[in-house]
Amino acid sequence: MTDYIDNIKTILDNIDKIPDELWVRRERVNQPLDQKQFIILHEYNEGGYDWESERLELTKDGELRYAFDSGCSCNGPWENLSDKEYEYKKCENTTKKSLVVTLDEITKVFKERYDKSYDDEKPPYPWNESNTINDLVTLLGKPDVSKVFGIRNTEIRRCYVKNIGYEKIKKVFDVKVIDSTTDNNGKPMELFDIEIKEEIDKNPIITIDRYLMVVDGSSKRQYLLGVPNNIKTCHFAKAWTFDIHPDDFNPIIET
């Protein structure tokens, strides 16, 4: 639990060092539509007809915000309201709130949940999806090429790769290129494997992870995206990132 608090404090103390481009990410990579804050912790619960979304957000101005929404499935965020208009009108129990909180207040919440998680024999995490906190701390620290593939957040990893350089990463990890080509915009794509060496219970473990290097058609930014190991081509890998069958993925131009 102490690590969470220390890491949040490190982020708050260095918030001016977070690249501006990270504050204008798309919603699909965990950025609210108003583009003013990160969701650094998030827990989404669904049970029967009820749902609730609980978030800890970090604003560009250095505030911590606690946000909470709840309701029933007929007005859940995934529903098409035109198809559920009748049920939606019947349901008026949606709750929404957003509060500015202090680090001390969040520490208290963390401690309560940390203690309870042990009582319930659950993992000792205050909320789910805490990788963003750790990833931001890595980005704010001294560049270390060995940490690149430990960053789970795609946008933060992209900034880290930009700081270090893709070619240097390839050399250090001695990557094995599986396929290389260009996309419809003439930008390079590479599908490659890396070896990840770990030690579990004093036993050395080597795993092979596969990544696609691709340039986004609209932002022109370079990404390293994890893909399944059974994918053999860049085209298939890129289609997979859009959740489209490769036979159906043939854009004339990407924007």
Task: Describe this protein's structure.
- The protein is an alpha+beta fold and 255 residues long.
- It folds into two domains: 2-140, no CATH class; 165-248, no CATH class.
- Helices cover 28% and strands 30% of the residues.
- Strands 1-2-3-4 form a four-stranded antiparallel β-sheet. A four-stranded antiparallel β-sheet has the order 5-6-7-8.
- A hairpin with a 5-residue loop joins strand 5 and strand 6 (188-200).
- Helix 1 (2-13) packs across helix 4 (131-140) and helix 4 (131-140) packs parallel to helix 5 (154-164).
- The longest helix has 17 residues, at 103-119.
- The protein is globular and about 50 Å long.
- The chain starts with a helix and ends in a 14-residue tail after the last helix.
- The model is unreliable at 25-33 and 75-91 (pLDDT under 50).
